[in-house]
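hi!! sorry for the late reply, been swamped w classes. u asked for the two structures so here they r. pasted raw, havent cleaned anything up. first the sequence of the first protein and right below it the tokens
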Amino acid sequence: MQFARLNGIVIHHQVIGAAPDRPTIVFANSLGTDYRIWRDVIVRLAGDFGIIAYDKRGHGLSECAEGPITTNDHVNDLAALLDHFNARKVIVCGLSVGGMIAQGLAAIRPDLVRALILCDTGHKIGTPEMWDARISAITEQGIAGISDVILERWFTKAYRSPDNAEFTGYRMMLERSPLEGYLGTCAAIRDSDFTQSSAALQLPVICVVGTEDGSTPPALVGELARLIPGAMYQEIPGAAHLPCIEKPVELTEIIRAFIERLPAA
């Protein structure tokens, strides 16, 4: 395990090196998860690419500062992590709120970002009323009280089998998420709108979505792809909100093909 104190909090992360001439991919995870969701993708890319994965503040083993959490906090944390390693022109692969963080980073620190892989995300996700209702429900019942509803959006029906040990494991990851970090990031997503800044992005982007995603459905991800100039769009059949878990082989192939088409750094 690797830790660094950045912006006044400790950020848990993992760095896997590669040859100096190989690109670095940074993985940013979704709400209620930690960087372990990328494992089956990372093991297929390690060695061919540098890898940086991390737990955003209030998630996994990363600290959560007192007070509200904003998307700017998450963006600045990632920028600080990349500055910590003097990483430049990385490829950021972000899922859900991780994709929003990726969009925000590319907007304010273009020196850090070469390209974006935006998985199951949007320029704006949900409505204030929806997020307020979730915050209220979790405050009253805890994450476990509404986890069934969340998991129905995360995974396909076939994956949500009681006999699937992996599904049980990811349920525990969600239900054991630090409450302060989860609720704070719900509010951060509620208050975030990257419509204008993402429409102004000038870098290679691909938007990827599971066809059965119930959190950020293909219509929303397609809207994001049309918003960003020149962005590509690709669906992954048989996956819901977390294709890195349900369809890691297919997502890895998309990542490799996208990077191979990038202009020389």
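now the second protein. again sequence first, tokens right under
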Amino acid sequence: MLSVHRDNSCEQDYTLTRRGCDTIPSTSLDQTLIERIAELKEEQNAVILAHNYQVPAVQEAADLVGDSLELARAAATIDTDVIVFCGVDFMAETAAILSPEKTVLLPAIDACCPMAEMVTAGEVRVLRERFPEAAVVAYVNTSAAVKAESDICCTSANAVAVVESLAAEQVIFLPDRNLGRYVARFTKKKILPWEGYCIVHDRMTADEVTAARRAHPGAEVLVHPECPPGVIDLADHVFSTSGMVRHACASPGREFVIGTEVGLLHQLEKRCPRKMFYPLSSRAVCVNMKKTGLPEVLAALEHLEPRVLVPEDIAARARVAIERMLNLP
């Protein structure tokens, strides 16, 4: 296991009650805000992209809700002047890298990703010196500077395919140790995982899976590959967030235990209204994903701030790694 650079600057915690929603900061669907946002979107030729973990009001206001891969593809191809990215910092950076001619806004400029801060560009350069024959795969949950030092990016939806696409037999996988270990199950390549992790998924436990099966004996257990190996071993299926939505809608099952951040429950309940969904963990809240509300979206559109800019020397190299991922079949 490769060592970790740890930064707690954006790590915070929430504990959930009831169905995982009581302590999430909420924004009501204020019709006046919705109408004003719609007007400004048209005036600014803007689009709102939102991650599946955003609060329900923001998801409802968005033009596209999805996982990191879907949102990256949209940022690269959508015909618009302004992108309002409702997520965390690395996501908006990725959009700015892929669409340098567009104005990319991050409504909550302090919405960071603790896992992305667990590895630095300098550490990647050291790893390359230590393992010169290895390819470097950077999860999209990394800074632009780290992507710029990497060979190719991946998301939780395509990580196995990305690793298998490489000629190298040794792969430095960063920063998520759990996703790296998951990928190692499906490849003969030697995976060298960095010792980083998602503070939401890493705290999920096998005991919680066992308890959820007792409480909901007929439910399928769906978990995210950022979960620890013990959780993955007990799950019925492992998916990215959008993969969970697609599976739940297509499955004949009626009940599902969801092992990821609770924001996904909104999309699941919206798209599969006749099915029941239960959060695996009472602690599965990313506070940074909850920093964006409708007032922040409105302010971003009104002022075209806060804008995310990536220095071109970094963006040009990071773009290569991201586009290699996007160009895979």
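hope this helps!! also noticed smth abt the second:
The first strand starts at residue 46 and ends at 51.
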